[in-house]
Amino acid sequence: MIPHDSFGPEYILEVHNARLGLTGFLVVDNTALGPGKGGIRMTPNVSIEEVFRLARTMTWKCALAGIPFGGAKAGIVWNGGSLAKKKALIQSFARAIAHFTPKKYIAGPDVNTGEREMEWFVDATGNWRSATGKPADLCMKLFGKPGEQCGIPHEFGSTGFGVAHATNIGATLYGLDIKKATIAIEGFGNVGSFAFQHLAAMGAKIIAVADQTGTVHDPNGLNAAALLKEKARGKFIKDSRLGERLDHDAIFAIPTDILIPAAVTDVIHDGNKKTIKAKIIVEGANIPMREHIEEEFSRRAILIVPDFVANAGGVISSYAEYRGYNPKQMFRLVERKIRAAVTDVLTKSMKKKKNPRAVALEIAQEKVLTAMKKRA
Questions:
Q1: Both 135 and 169 in a single domain?
Q2: 283 with 184, same domain?
Q3: Pick from 118, 153, 188: which residue ends a domain?
């Protein structure tokens, strides 16, 4: 059962196409600040409850980032298959919800979706503004305008870029020099790999990285250029020769200053929470743990930079694309807004001695409530 409160959700849709085997979900949580923004997640076990939790997170994320978007999210059950099958599912889903786009919902990339899938989506809705994260040259394809770019693909790494800056600010406010801190990153996809790249450029010592196949660990620091080269060649972490190879879950028990969960939901749970030895956890992933676990970490004096603060770079990038900004302008906007939000939340959290999520929620909720009152 999806809970309802004064904030939403405004719409809950379940989409089926028996011929294609499609089961999809759309939750538009709150549009007081603008159209609901949130990516399309494609996993075998995505559920309406997970989509709602993610949509509510997007409501707070957009509000805290100070951009005129509301919160929404979509999910399609995806057990794998051909590109033709994937395209058919996405386009069937897009046509089913086209009435809501882009006035109530603007799609974007998420787990197992990227610029290709966003192009399929806008092709099916017939409206290029119905999604962000599109190929950079989509204007040329659609409108025949040579050289014009109207897409900022997820593959530009704006979320990971923002997570890196959130990590830097969090470390500084905690009293750690990012160049002397040790970091472990769980997840080496679009978020984790770019966070890794930008943190390495900042001089951070990244001692462990995990993907779904395993963990690679080197207490002296991983060779960033070599690991990124392996990834570019299509290698998984289990194939890396750059350090000690461990199973995936081992990353949570590695002593480190900073832990960045940057993959999927609920990877930190009651079964592994006691093994975590980090001083700071920066939530690169959406909802990497339940709120009661965050509370426990706060009582253990572990600093949490909440997901909707740390990983807002993606939705800020979406807004930049929506406004027609170029990538250089986008990166400047992401850095400015992420640094401001993280500084505001953590400074108030330390001053009030309150959980950062609670402080961030207070700030975001006040913004949404003000907008709801004006709309009423």
A1: no
A2: yes
A3: 153
Least confident of 77-91, 123-137, 342-356: 123-137
Q: Give yes or no for a contact between 278 and 302, defined as CB atoms under 8 angstroms apart.
A: yes
* Rounded Cα gap, residues 375 and 357, in angstroms: 26
Residues 246 and 278 in one domain: yes
- 177 vs 364: CA distance, rounded Å: 29
Tell me, yes or no, whether 31 and 110 share the same domain. Answer: yes
Neighbour order of strands in the sheet with 205-211: 244-246, 214-217, 205-211, 182-186, 258-261, 280-282, 303-305
Q: How far apart are CA 61 and CA 143, in angstroms?
A: 33
Whether residue 348 is found in the same domain as residue 212: yes
Distance between CA atoms of residues 36 and 56, nearest Å: 10
Are residues 112 and 194 located together in one domain of the fold? no
314-349 per-position pLDDT tens digit: 899 889 888 878 888 989 999 999 999 999 999 999
Predicted local distance difference test score (pLDDT) of residue 155: 58
User: Do the strands 244-246 and 214-217 form a parallel or antiparallel pair, or are they unpaired?
Assistant: antiparallel
135: cis peptide before it, omega within 30°?
A: no
Query: Total structural domains in the chain?
Result: 2
CATH of the domain at 129: 3.40.50.10860
Side-chain half-sphere of 105: how many Cα atoms within 13 Å?
30
Tokens found for residue 13: 């849709």
Above pLDDT 70, what percent of the chain?
Answer: 95
Q: Does residue 202 carry a pLDDT above 70? A: yes
User: Which CA distances in Å does 355 have to 22, 58, 305, 310, 367?
Assistant: 40, 19, 10, 15, 19
- In terms of domains, do 141 and 190 share one? no
Domain of residue 104, residue span: 11-56+72-153
Residues marked active site are found at 73
Give the integer Cα–Cα distance in Å for 315 and 307: 12
pLDDT digits (tens, 9 = 90+) for 237-288: 998 889 999 999 999 999 999 999 999 888 999 999 999 999 999 999 988 9
Burial 187-212 (b: 16+ CB within 10 A, else e): bbbbbbbbbbbbbbeeebbbbbbbbe
What is the per-residue pLDDT for 142?
53
Query: Of 153, 174, 196, at which residue does a domain stop?
Result: 153
Note whether 293 and 209 are same-domain residues: yes
Distances (CA, A) of 150 to 107, 134, 139, 156: 15, 8, 5, 14
